[in-house]
TrEMBL record:
SUPFAM superfamilies: Ferredoxin reductase-like, C-terminal NADP-linked domain, Riboflavin synthase domain-like. Gene3D superfamilies: Dihydroorotate dehydrogenase, electron transfer subunit (2.10.240.10), Nucleotide-binding domain of ferredoxin-NADP reductase (FNR) module (3.40.50.80), Translation factors (2.40.30.10). This is Dihydroorotate dehydrogenase, electron transfer subunit, iron-sulfur cluster binding domain protein. PANTHER family: ANAEROBIC SULFITE REDUCTASE SUBUNIT B, DIHYDROOROTATE DEHYDROGENASE B (NAD(+)), ELECTRON TRANSFER SUBUNIT. Binds 1 [2Fe-2S] cluster per subunit.
Amino acid sequence: MNNLYMPELALVDDIKEETPNIRTLTISLKSRKPLSALPGQFVELTIFGYGEFPVSVSAVLGPTKDRLQTTIQRIGRVTKETANLSVGSTIGIRGPFGNGFPLAEMKGKNICIVTGGVGLAAVRYLINYIIENRDHYGKLQLLHGARTPGDLIYKDFLFNKEKAQEQGIEILLTVDQPDTGWEGHVGVVTELFKRTTLDPVNTMAVVCGPSIMMKFATQCLSDMGFGDDQILVSMERRMQCGMGMCGHCMVGQKRVCLDGPVFTYGSIKEALERAF
């Protein structure tokens, strides 16, 4: 996109209700231009008449990469307006912004992804990318937690054990508050470390989710022997304007929207400990 200050007109092509307050939008530009983005990057979506907000790119679709998906939790004044969007609605889009994941550095390594809540949306594109390039990466694990079973997003992906086996991904799930039908693990996501083999040798860990979850997950990984530069954290929750102008996303001296949203734990460790 030529002018990152000016939203381009886009259409909502499809909507999938993930939970009562989270939905995944499939979006295309009215110009039908490709929507190039890297795993870990984000875009700014405009709801005309209400404002804009940052959201991670959770997938890029189509043979010409002309559609992208974003998964949005309705928690603020503007994001709540996404409940009124329907297929065919016109919205605006700016971006993509941010640095994305260091795919070249991750190549050839085992990847352990630890997420909580809607934080899974920020790494869904990364998971897709690794699956599509499966021969270039080692063991792939996803450890994911949610508050309740009803709060789990991407259920078709998370609960398809046969497909997960075909794709070479190990998925472990947990919830804080089970319902009567839940047969899986109950507890915080860091307890899943005890239920799988995780060797820091030739492994990179990716962490994204609520601040308290990220604090304890990074601490656990450090205690297990992961070096600070073996842990990648996505700070997508702290983003706002996307251009480093507003200052709302500052972590120490870093602007998340310009210097991130993906960081090595070592590069912002001290600032993160204060932020958490």
